[in-house]
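Q: What would this chain look like folded?
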Amino acid sequence: MKKTFDEELYKKIAINDLIIFCIYSVASKGEKCTFEKLIKECFFLFPKVFSFSHFPQWPDSRKIDRPLRSLREEKVINEIKSIFSLTKIGEKRAQDLAKVFKQGKLI
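A: My prediction, written as structure tokens:
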């Protein structure tokens, strides 16, 4: 079942935070968050942000790669053997975003 979010809301949220939320989403399903699953989740939940500009029906993995590096540097995510997980800081940010999406407005 596809969970949709308000496009006008999620387009206002920083791409790093959307990625954090997607890692959280994959993990909450009990799955390991590989790069491929992360691309799928990002595109599935937030297609307008994570698609190619000229080919909106396809995910653009380049939009995920560089932010992942900065999230590692900020110590918001961990990467062990190409599996991504959130640190306590990242999990808190993801939970805050979940509240934003549930309420349908930025806090």
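The helical segments are 7-10, 15-28, 35-45, 62-73, 88-103.
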